[in-house]
């Protein structure tokens, strides 16, 4: 009888965790939809052409950062804009994953083989600022 109750309790815990994860995922998706409502979806090339063409930024930097944001934030970034602000309209992502900012920086550092200092990360608020920061570091030796 005790084993059966333990198994039942275990199943209940698993069911609760699955329900909680799904609920959080739906809430996050709803917030993404609200944030990007009314915006057209852009391919990586269109995103680059619209916001970064002629700024001396390599297309690979822009597409790499957008891909990292999609992966780390687990959200469709096709309606992202250069002026989107991590401390304002995109701040809700941290409500769902408080370590997302750290994970984004680490993924960018690894992908581009650069080092981003904490003060640089803290002072980077918009997607455009992030792209410019990474672009400025490409080709420069990383600090130890």
Write the layout of secondary structure elements.
Elements: H1 2-35, H2 44-51, H3 59-73, H4 92-96, H5 100-112, H6 118-122, H7 127-137
Helix pairs in contact: 2-3, 3-5
Question: Describe it for me?
Answer:
It contains 7 helices and no strands. With 144 residues, the protein is mainly alpha-helical. It folds into 2 domains: 1-35; 40-137, Orthogonal Bundle (Non-ribosomal Peptide Synthetase Peptidyl Carrier Protein, Chain A). The longest helix is centred in the first third of the chain and has 34 residues, at 2-35. The chain starts with a helix and ends in a 7-residue tail after the last helix. The model has no long low-confidence stretch (mean pLDDT 87).
Short synopsis of the structure:
The chain is mostly helical and 144 residues long. 63% of the residues lie in helices and 0% in strands.
Specify the number of helices. 7
Derived from helix and strand composition plus strand pairing, the structural class reads: mainly alpha
Q: List the helices and strands in order.
A: HHHHHHH
Rg calculated over all Cα atoms: 19 Å
Extract low-pLDDT stretches.
none
Tally of separate domains: 2
CATH architecture of the largest domain: Orthogonal Bundle
- Portion in strands: under 5%
